[in-house]
Amino acid sequence: MRSRDHGVLVILALVLIAVSPSLVGAEPEPGVARVSLINGDVTSMRGDSGDWVALTVNAPVVSGDKIATGRGSRTELQLDHANTLRIGQDSEARIADLSRSRIQVQLSQGVVNLTVMKDNEADVEIDTPNVAVRPMKEGRYRIQVNAAGETEVIVRKGEAEVFTSEGTTRVKKNDMAVVRGTKDNPEYRVMNAPGRDDWDEWNEDRDEMVRNARSWGYTSPYYTGAHDLDRYGRWSYIPGYDYVWSPVGVDPYWAPYRQGRWVWEPYWGWTWVSYEPWGWAPYHYGRWFSHSNAWYWWPGPRHHHYRPYWAPAFVSFFGFGAGRFHFSFGLGFGYHSIGWLPIGPGDYYYPWHGHHRYRYNSVNVVNIRNVNVYNIYGDGAIPPLGRGRANRSNLRDAFDNPRLRNSITAVETNDFISGRSSRQGGRVSESQLRDAHLVAGNPPAVPTRESLRASDRAVTA
After folding, report:
1. Residue 131: which domain range?
2. CA distances (Å), origin 33, targets 29, 132, 220, 280
3. Tell me: the pLDDT tens digits for 56-94?
4. Which residue of 8, 97, 328, 353 has the fewest C-beta atoms within 10 A of its own C-beta?
């Protein structure tokens, strides 16, 4: 579908990012969109890497990324809690800006649908080669660039402003604006929109499914991906935690953060991409804890004033073997194997990414039983999310709870870097855990080109 143009990845720069200290006084962190649906042949180009790679559900999408679809294909991106972009067949779009306050998408060819839901906080703009479209309210907006370079803007619900070099016009519900010509010499007119087709009906059905999801009643309204929890799990009440969610159809030895892979995002560092279709909200928000021989996801506070903290993963990292000063440039450094365990409501979180990036440090795991973890690492840790009875610490309980200890997934460092499936990762014995080091900050693993891929699927030419 897209020819592969191999760019140059400067590994040394990634090494410096991986071990650098946090930045002080930096701007707000950028947004992260979720690939929530894929039908057919969908590829992406990570920033200016030059490589088109196959996309997968739950892959993160950030500013600068391009998305392309093949014949008969489509995909859905949840840009944030209130904005969803669906890209139709034979289309190409670039995420030009993605933050809490601004979303900008550049559509070079094909068709997209933008759905704006309630509580939108961002200024949203869809750009084509000759026009800029800005939704003014909650609604559903269809923008199409055809082979002749014309742009069609159809408002199925809501109202939009259409900007050209000749001026601005408003397009209301059930109207269409057609813009011809170049960016510097456009011609446009507004008319009644044509009747709905299969693309419109599909988008409306998707919107209704998301809007009516039962799980919204149990999670923060600012989460993305919560609607998928209805289909793949159940909500239960546990005293002290209120309502918590658990997946159905998993084996008795299932554990969070096991079916998936780690990918490298230049800003966010090592980021978890789940192979489970529901694996976005429970792996990037909230906390996990073990109760009555089962794992439960606690979504955390859900009142409107609580702003959730998105993270590439909420885990504790461990280093096994070789010693903390072992170094192997280009493959990894620090340890023979890297392991991870979900953090619980009572655990501290040590960011390894962005403005909160925590300087690399490690301590022998046995020390955490006698010393306050916060005192070991000092400033930079994010305090436990849980309060009162919701104070379960997976890290402290792993010594005495075999189920927790068996939920630590460990893979060789080179496998961690290359994104090889962690489903086959080894379990950790009590003696191995005692000899391990708890890692604060970026896991000691140097990313390579393979680390940028969220999927090993081949790209269709």
Report:
1. 31-210
2. 13, 21, 17, 10
3. 999 999 999 999 999 999 999 999 999 999 999 999 999
4. 8
